[in-house]
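Sample pair:
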Amino acid sequence: MTGWHDVASPRSHMHEPGWLARHRPRPELPPHPLESLRLQAMRSAARTAGLRIALVAAAVFGVWGGLHLGKRLPVFLVERVEVEGNGYLTQDEVRAVAGLAGAVSVWESTSDIEVRLARHPLVESAKVERALPSTFVIRVEEAAPVGLVASPVAVAVDRNGDVLPLDPTEPILDLPVLRVLTSLASASWGLRILARDVEHVAEVAPEVFAVLSEARLDDREATLLLGDSGLRVRYHPPISQRRLREAVIAINDAYERVADGGLEEIDLRFADQVVVRTAASPAVEDGAGG
């Protein structure tokens, strides 16, 4: 049995020769010259980068501040507004609708001006450009009236049947009267259908539109009344370009062959047919299909 004095102490190895020499703190060595140069270069690069960032930030802030303050200079106040494409709206009305009355900077947002103009019922579209230092150029496309509707006084309407803020008497609008004859047709977007057909006539057959005095719509068909003679063109809406052309050919041909006052009706209600009726023609019921 081993005695107490034979048990090795946990610290007994500290008395072994050479232990202190192995665990004695080593003196710090001076940094290597290359390491010192590398650290100096890193610190210099960091200072340079920070200086550049500060200079860029100062430049950006200076430019932004200069522009912001410069936009308020009197030289940039709007002095002139040029308006192109207007026919019904006056230049002063366009300027007022655009919100350019009074002291306004030429740096006003052009998109905001275009939005304000587009809200007006007479403006289909608008494009705004600035001409420095103090001019806006506004190009508008106006909504064109295609007919007059009695409600109860005569009002002008566009291709969608929407009422336009125009006085039909100043200037006098030489436009056909649009009539929706039944409540069913009226409830079924009748005025819009009729207005778009009339616009289509104006585009495809301007010679017909020039003598169109009235356009009527009921539940089953539409009728165009032409000239003082009351020549009728009957069709099922909407009217196509092909059928319009066929009606024009039929009218021109009939006027050459029929005595004055004898032509009464061009009927387009029958598929792939154009029926010409004169005063001597037998009457046909309104329910003819096509």
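The first helix runs from residue 19 to 23.
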